[in-house]
Request: fold
Amino acid sequence: MEEISFKELLGYSIKGEEIAYEAYMDIAKTLSGLASDRFQSLAKEELDHKQKLLDLHEYEFGDKEYVVPEGEGFPPHEGDLIDIDAEKINSLIEAIDSAIQAGKMLMNCIIN
Reply:
């Protein structure tokens, strides 16, 4: 990997936050309930990270117009590494919900 400037590093990092945001939102759209909420929360965190990096860029360089370096040898962004099987997550959530409901029914039988 060639040497990059601090400005390019910030641009690369900002772009990474955008990619992670999009990946988490794409996953959230395929899920429901708590699982979807959690991935939306993760996506929001990525926007917060992006804003902090943009603020740092503005502090250092006087603007928020960042440059994303191109070329080979850069590590992947977080969002490029996310590989989640939404069907398995939904099945797991359904199984947990079912177990909770069964527990509630059992408790109602014991109490009544």
About this structure: The mean pLDDT is 82. Residues 6-83 form one domain. The chain is about 75% helix and 0% strand. The helical segments are 6-30, 33-61, 78-81, 86-111.
